[in-house]
Amino acid sequence: MVETGGKNYAIGVDYGTESGRAVLVDVQTGEEIAAHVTVYAHGVIDRQLPGSEVTLAMDWALQHPGDYLDVLRQSVPAVLQQAGIPPESVIGIGIDFTACTVLPVNADGVPLCFFEEYRNDPHSWTKLWKHHAAAPQAERINHLAKERGEDFLPRYGGSISSEWLLPKLLETAEQSPAVFEAADRFVEAADWVVWQLCGELARSSCCAGYKGIWHKLEGYPSTEFLKQLDPRFESLYQTKLAGSVVPVGSRAGGLEPRMAKELGLLPGTAVSTAIIDAHAAVLGCGVTEPGSMVLAMGTSLCHMVLGDEEHLIQGVNGVVEDGIVPGMFGYEAGQPAVGDMFAWFVNTSVSEEIARQAAAEGIGVHNWLEREAGQLSPGQSGLLALDWWNGGRSPILDEALSGLLVGLTLSTTPAEIYRALLESAAFGTRRIIETFEESGVQIVSLYACGGLPQKNKLLMQIFADVLGMDIKVAKSTQPVALGAAICGAAAAGSQASGYDSLSDGIRAMGQTKEQSIRPNREHKAAYDRLYAQYRAMHEAFGVPSGPVGKVMRELKRMRTGG
């Protein structure tokens, strides 16, 4: 790194589901200097289009792309003002985003929903990552890929999600041919924001690999497969999905003058290619070594693993070369219900008396339950849960799966149920780690980040006990935004006092706390017994051919009217 005699900074802009934040970071130390949050004015659009009488069907989730620009215009100047630094001290900007969040644009990159003729068509808006209305299209894609024996499918654990790019585009083509034809490009929102900043479309290797079915050596799915899927898709990746795929942390371009003026920065400031939000957490934790697993723990849980070889793993959502750190293979697995499963219990199943007790003590209900549950020993409640409150992701990719709680009696307490739910999340992660190791990817170190590790000490101790491994916790309270800022520093390069490789930036700026969470060996022995029963239930209810494998699926069909 070139010494300039003064401090230099990078800005990470983290786009979440409800809001976006900018974080100003010291390039040399990774210290967070200032942060600002902008709440999306339109939020998640899941009932009615803004300024319209058009209502949305079940499983729709849209966003207004103008909200993304508001984050830049409000939060970036705000962190500069908070820190009181001159614009020339900022050497780079990085973007992370939820994915797959995709929108159709014209040749100039203007979203189609900005035009009067398309604004009342839901397909012209940004389809958020949790837009699940393309499930029928995903099912057909998976069926055809299996029928043809397509090579790409095993790299995604044997199933393409309805949240991903191709199902969402197929949904648009089938339900709104006018929007599909009018779109010059369909772009990830992450890549669109980068495009707005620097005037260049650079498709991120992270987004393209995990959500767009791109492979570094083999490229995209074959034209034969795409044509059979829909004749209009034959040249899809050469036309409406055209654009170079660029590794994470590379320079996408320089900040163009108009945006520089709006943001209060200098024209030409380095802009990095984008990265998916959860994957940016790997960078924020300072992880660069193979065999490392990062647990990004929030409402859901994403498991990111770095490896030096490509292995095809059933139920793992993707393995992408250059997907997280250039030069390495990045794996992604996940549990779709963790924090929101705990919140469901607190919001729906806790008595008013407990709420009153917590309030009288000046603590939240979660804290009250955590304290009471912490007084229990493993197995004491006789309860065991399956963690599928929002369907199953890894290793059984099936949205029809649902939660299960076994062992209830008339003496069961809320604290016992709460602890069983915490334990179920840890058991689910243990099953995922076993799946990796059974397929040749050894997990040698664990890292945790996100809201839950900072808030729930009992949960993290249970994870360490169940997994039998030390867990290092991110030092930063904003590891995702920090990861995006590291990308910005790498995009700037050493000539601008940044870093010549993303790995160098990660090692310098990523951080974990000095103390790790260590497992309690006595608890580990008890949890081994419980986990054996979890595995039995996991296979029985999760595998369709199991003894009760059709129960949850049939209940889901009945609930949805199928």
TrEMBL record:
Query: Per the UniProt record, which EC number(s) apply here?
Result: 2.7.1.16
Q: Which UniProt keywords apply?
A: Arabinose catabolism, ATP-binding, Carbohydrate metabolism, Kinase, Nucleotide-binding, Transferase
Q: Which reactions fall under this protein's catalytic activity?
A: D-ribulose + ATP = D-ribulose 5-phosphate + ADP + H(+); L-ribulose + ATP = L-ribulose 5-phosphate + ADP + H(+)
Family, as annotated: Belongs to the ribulokinase family.
- Which intervals hold domain Carbohydrate kinase FGGY N-terminal? 9-284
Question: CDD domains this protein is in?
Answer: ASKHA_NBD_FGGY_L-RBK
Task: Give the superkingdom in one word.
Answer: Bacteria
Q: Which GO terms describe its molecular function?
A: ribulokinase activity
Q: Which organism is it from?
A: Paenibacillus anseongense
Output the NCBIfam families linked to this UniProt entry. L-ribulokinase (TIGR01234), PRK04123.1 (NF003154)
Carbohydrate kinase FGGY C-terminal domain residues: 294-492
Q: What pathway is this protein a component of?
A: Carbohydrate degradation; L-arabinose degradation via L-ribulose; D-xylulose 5-phosphate from L-arabinose (bacterial route): step 2/3
Q: Which PANTHER family match?
A: FGGY CARBOHYDRATE KINASE DOMAIN-CONTAINING PROTEIN, RIBULOKINASE
Protein name as it appears in the record: Ribulokinase
